[in-house]
Amino acid sequence: MKKLIFITLLLLLAxxxxxxxxxxxxxxxxxxxxxxxxxxxxxxxxxxxxNDQMTTYLSKISEQWYDNHRKIFGKDILFKNPxxxxxxxxxxxxxxxxxxxxxxxxxxxxEALKNRIVIPLSFSLQSTHHVxxxxxxxxxxxxxxxxxxxxxxxxxxxxxxxxxxxxxxxFSLGNKDPFTAMWMRDAVINNILPEISKLNTAKYFPYRYGxxxxxxxxxxxxxxxxxxxFMNTAMYGLEAGFIITFGQDTxxxxxxxxxxLKDQYSPLLKDRKEKPQGKN
Length: 280
Ligand SMILES: [Zn+2]
Hints:
The protein has helices spanning 2-18, 52-73, 89-92, 125-147, 161-173, 178-189, 206-221, 224-236, 238-246, 250-269, and strands at 36-39, 43-47, 81-86, 109-110, 117-120. It is an alpha/beta fold.
């Protein structure tokens, strides 16, 4: 019984970060890649790039962001964390680091067992940077969960997707993101801001709502609370995790979050009417 749960969770995890779609067919492999390894103080970067500048860039930002994330998560990763880089998305889709198919919309993958981060070079340097830093947050999340005194990978079943992805977005993009702002303005206009306890459904896109809520929590209570929230939720579930971390329940914090969003966006939306130019 226990084994069954564990396997289910792993499949779920693969799905979580890969958005993997299982079509029940074998993954096409067109070629093998001649991987080399670049070692930095905290990473082993596996790649087959011919562009030394790109290799240097990836090594540099990996180390910079290691320091940032290390401060947030409070724990070192005690081995050189593997990062596997594919030259483009089509080749990334052929990776054998995870068993499921990787959809066209998947930006990167982090798998829990070996903490491997798997990414393609993206269409822009900025996008590659975002995907790498986002996936690195998942590596730190896994590291804390696996090495926590009272947590194991099974504990991730307690953490809603908006929290996992919201952290990865907030700690890679920061608190200002035009896509998230667009979604939240829309939710304010249409009066459809969700309660935190109702956020974990397919109706609310976890990346955008998660980033908005994490940005609010980080700004209101301090970024140092966010890892505590993550670990407490993994241990005790969402409701108890919030009360232990913030001293308030999700209902109260939902109201604070909604008020902050309305205060931010309502003045911009007031008295806005369509004023078509020219004569009818
Ligand atoms: Zn993610």
